[in-house]
Amino acid sequence: MTIITELARWxxxxxxxxxPLYAYMRKVPVYETFVEGAENGFxxxxxxxxxxxxxxxxxxxxxxxxxxELLIDLFRPLFTAVGWNPDVLExxxxxxxxxxxxxxxxxxxxxxxxxxxxxxxxxxLASTLQGSTxxxxxxxxxxxxxxxxxxxxxxLKVGLxxxxxxxxxxxxxxxxxxx
Amino acid sequence: xxxxxxxxxxxxxxxxxxxxxxxxxxxxSALQAxxxxxxxxxxxxxxxxxxxxxxxxxxxxxxxxxxxxxxxPVLRVLFPSLKAESPAFGAIVMNLCxxxxxxxxxxxxxxxxxxxxxxxENSDPTTASPAMITFLALNTSCITIIPATxxxxxxxxxxxxxxxxxxxxxxxxxxAMTAAIIxxxxxxxxxxx
Lengths: 179, 193
Fold this sequence. Notes:
The complex is a heterodimer of chains A (179) and B (193). Helices cover 80% and strands 0% of the residues of chain A. Chain A has 179 residues and is mostly helical. The radius of gyration of chain A is 21 Å and the shape is globular. Chain B has 193 residues and is mainly alpha-helical. Chain B has one domain (27-191). Chain B starts with a helix and ends with a helix.
């Protein structure tokens, strides 16, 4: 497993080393080309700003007011009815937060890991869930917003179905391997 | 649908805060969130400039096209509506590679670039094209082989084996990605008019 942490440590330096070197050998004016591309970073960031703020404001009000917690309480009986390990209930806040906010869900996951211990069932489940799903709702809003798409069609349904499958798969595999 | 979700989150949040006698929270949260939005955008400006600059070098050196060509058999199946030589493929592959390597902040600029390219081939510029939806489905469910952030959290929390969750993560995300591809395919077929 140290190989993987090493790979993570080396990935960016390696990319920064090989890409410009290879390009230079192929007679690309590397510095000027870099600057030309970098210019777009600024424009893109400005373009997504309104969508970023719009989403963040609504999500923060929803979470900080306690409305999210209320929603979670509504889901609790459903999970008990299915007859899952009652520990699994602890994961609901993370599962609901995950598609909405990256920093928010990381906060919830960290809290769960510290509270239950990283090597507990919940600690492992929170780690797996945080690593395996994405901030679907947020990504859709920003990506579509950046190019001016207003009608998402079935995009949200596809993304959230995948998240639900990711959640069920996480619970299943963590129970099976570490159960 | 987004309009409704956005409104519901805001309205229900304000109502709950009011009922709890905690209405000041709404003001604080709204103002803070707007501030965070700017912070994130400025942070992204730097990161995006870096990665888009590098991508431009890779592009001019023919690396992006090369990468797209390697994956083209898979991409052609996943994106039947795109032309074989579509410039969107390069950005799509770069985005997915960044996701797989867990380079989250590099994935965003490549992803937005891919959307820009896909938009050029979109027949109705206000409606999501099937290719965009497929791309977003892959992007949000993409396999990560190095969930670096969460491994860091586990290390700090004193885990005996911080990387033991890599296997379970790859399995779960593999299931999510398979589901995304299948559900996207079903919807795409059903929505064809």
